[in-house]
């Protein structure tokens, strides 16, 4: 039995635009997906997922057959996406090791589809646990590359390397096209996360931005401007200027909203954070619902979010210095 885990993430700046080659900066956070892989005597592969806000979700693989037995309380497209991610991770494992069977159990304290990188963390941890269980040790970079291929397929070829690279490497990362690098000595930022209890469909949201970008030159300009915000933000990271970072996050949220990927509850949480005195706040990840991230060293934003209609949960997040790691072998 092998247990591996990988962290979720927040986008400090740059989601969506990163799909089109603009830079993005992401920070791994101390919420992880944990995957247990156990070799089996037969050639079947059984996947069980717990705590993915999907009750009793279970997928059985054998001879290429996928059988979903479900007691499910989240929208169906999300289940299809979740199955796609798990299925893709298994395919990657099968490219690396002989196809003996194993059971994979997934536990996660990252809400599914909420912008905190749950799918990337599950895929990264699953590839690591299953390959190690079969006696193969991949580097975090190799795992990131394989996990990216999974996201690319599930999102119909419209995915960046950002989420999977951040989850595999931990700490903070900068991604621009194929150029992925860790940020040495990232600042410890006072992240506060607000979660509205819902989820967005990444594939649909990414396609929506692409359509806007193709239809309107000013939407394409908006995407490029997000890239400019990220480049400006990199200087603020180096100087650890949290106020400047907050201002840039506010700007970034406004542009994401213009691109149609915010929602009423995300906007309400962003404004609650700003009114409470946060340096800045924005949605994180694909949007459409899910999480916002704010910068506030005081308890005021968390308190305000607790009383914000539409906010279901709020918590402080710390930078996670570990990427994918083996928990037990
Ligand atoms: C989703 O977490 C982030 C997006 O930029 C998509 C991607 O980078 O693949 C919206």
From TrEMBL:
Cofactor: Mg(2+)
One example GO MF annotation: mevalonate kinase activity
GO cellular component, one term: cytosol
This enzyme's EC code(s): 2.7.1.36
One BP annotation, GO: isopentenyl diphosphate biosynthetic process, mevalonate pathway
Subcellular location: Cytoplasm
Name of the top EC class for this enzyme: transferase
Residues at the active site: 163 (proton acceptor)
Positions of ATP binding: 111-121
Pathway of action: Isoprenoid biosynthesis; isopentenyl diphosphate biosynthesis via mevalonate pathway; isopentenyl diphosphate from (R)-mevalonate: step 1/3
Family per record: Belongs to the GHMP kinase family. Mevalonate kinase subfamily.
Subunit structure: Homodimer.
Protein's name in the database: Mevalonate kinase
The species this protein was found in: Halocatena salina
